[in-house]
Amino acid sequence: MPAHAKRPSRLHRLLSAVLLLGLLALLTIGQRLHWDDQLRLLWEEQSVDEQTRAAGIWLPDYRLALETTLAGLEEDETSGLTWNPLTGTLFTVTGQNPQLVEFTPSGVILRRIRLDGFADPEAVEALGDGRLAIVDERRHLLAVFHLEPGVEHLDLANLASYDLGFAAAGNKGFEGLAWNPQTHRLLLAKERDPQGLFSLPFPGEDGTAGTLEALPEQPLLVRDLSSVAIDPRSGHTLLLSDESRLLVELDLAGKPRSFISLFGGLNGLVRGIAQAEGVAMDAAGNIYVVGEPNRFYVFSRQPDSTRPGTAP
């Protein structure tokens, strides 16, 4: 037998090494992107009964209902979003030119309020009692105020503000903010390095904020946290990730319950949401998303009539 037939050729060994390295690289990337966690949750979703689905948000039932632009904000970079049940409108903040913007569920802008003294507003939230709260990521603080009719600008120096810590976080601070009316706490999402969710007991207008508490770590399925919202019906939490292009539902224990991708071709999206920066949810279950620079999306729940146990 020829000598070259007794052992693999150098080319064969080289190809085997390249394939092995490629596989290891794919596994490493998949772990960093949480593909393993996503596949596990996708498998678990198949066995969830209809009653459990109906008790939460259940993102796989959601489809795009509206996609439009927020006119005039092309150069302003929307970031953060909240639904205000008292006005039936949405609010977002912009980072490039700091301002607070109110608009309708169909994307019609009603007013723009200049934010003086803010460096990098990243999140806004309606607290349910007429107050709004804004997180300034670069200044690591939370500002709270009443927005009066006819106001054209707000000065940070005149607003109640609270230090959120993490002074060394730079531009990797808090990007998400949500109000939980049942617990009277704010939920804050730190983007990354380290990524995490935090709870802040928040009082009435005459009190002081409590102590920021880190919530127990969970596999959140995402590379970063861009925004959070709380479903007023179930109390479940929505996580929005820009880098992973995902919406994730967390149950009351903080564990992932369902998710959908924000890539084009899925869930009614023709084009994907390239830079998703804010998410909000109303009492009817509609989900609103803003993306840079000024894109606006509405997702509505449309149960799959072909699934067993679902009414036609």
From TrEMBL:
Signal peptide: none annotated. It is found in: Cell membrane. InterPro entries: 6-blade_b-propeller_TolB-like (IPR011042), YjiK/CarP (IPR009722). The keyword Cytoplasm does not apply. Gene3D superfamilies: TolB, C-terminal domain. The keyword Cytoplasm does not apply. One of its GO terms (cellular component) is plasma membrane. Keywords: Cell membrane, Membrane. CDD domains: SdiA-regulated. Belongs to the YjiK family. This is Uncharacterized protein YjiK. It comes from Pseudomonas linyingensis.
